[in-house]
Amino acid sequence: MSAIHRGDTRAAIHRANLVPPGLLYGRLDALHPYLILREHVVDRLYHRNVGYWKANLEGLDHLGESDRAELLVDYLGHSEQQLVAAAEKMTKDGKYELAASLLESSIARFGRTEPLTKAERLVYLKLMEKYQNTDPFKYILYSAKIGEQTSAIASK
After folding, report:
1. What CA–CA distance (Å, rounded) separates 27 from 41?
2. Contact at 8 Å (CB) between 137 and 125?
3. For 49-77, how does the pLDDT look when each residue is reduced to its tens digit (9 = 90+)?
4. How big is the CA angle at 11 (ends 8 and 15), to the nearest 5 degrees?
5. Alpha helices in the chain (DSSP H)
C-alpha cells in the first residue's frame, strides 16, 4: 500500500516482486499459492486505491490499439514487416508481453495477415509456456487468444 500511496505505477510495483515479511520463514506451504495470486492481488489493490485516473495521467485518454498503430505507422513510418520484425526480436529477447502489445496494435491496423498471425501465435505460445506453472488465469486466457486447446486436469 505504501508504494501506491507514494504514486508508484502498477508496473513498478509488479517489478518490485513484493513478498510479505515472514512468508519465506515457516510458511513455505503458502509460498506457491501466494506467487500464483500475487499479481492479481496487486492489480486489485492498485485499482481500488487509485481509481480511474492515475497519478501519471493514465486513464484520462481513450486511446486504443488502432491509435497506437496509427502512431507507429502514420507518424513513425513503420511498415508491417518492420513491426513483425520488432515483435520477433522482442520475443527472442523474452519480452513477450511487449511483443503481444505491439502485435495487437499491428493487427488492429493491418488485419490478420499471415506474418502477424504467425508472430502472434509464437508470442502467445511463449506466454503460455512462461505462465503454465505459475498463473493458471493467464495460461488459460493466452491459450484462448490463439485457440490453443488446454489439457484437462486429471481428477484423483
Report:
1. 19
2. no
3. 887 777 667 777 888 888 999 999 999 99
4. 95
5. 2-6, 10-15, 28-50, 65-70, 80-92, 96-110, 114-131, 136-145
Block residue for cell numbers 488446454: 150
Distance (Å, rounded) from C-alpha 3 to C-alpha 17?
12
Residue ranges, the chain, pLDDT below 70: 22-26, 55-56, 152-156
How far from 109 is each of 58, 67, 153, CA to CA, in Å?
23, 9, 38
The grid coordinates of residue 32 equal 506457491
Long-range pairs, 84-89, Cβ under 8 A, ≥24: 84/115, 84/116, 84/119, 87/119, 87/123, 88/119, 88/122
CA-to-CA distance for 68 and 39, rounded, in angstroms?
25
Question: Is the whole model's pTM more than 0.85, yes or no?
Answer: no
Give me the phi and psi of 144, to 5 degrees please: -65, -35
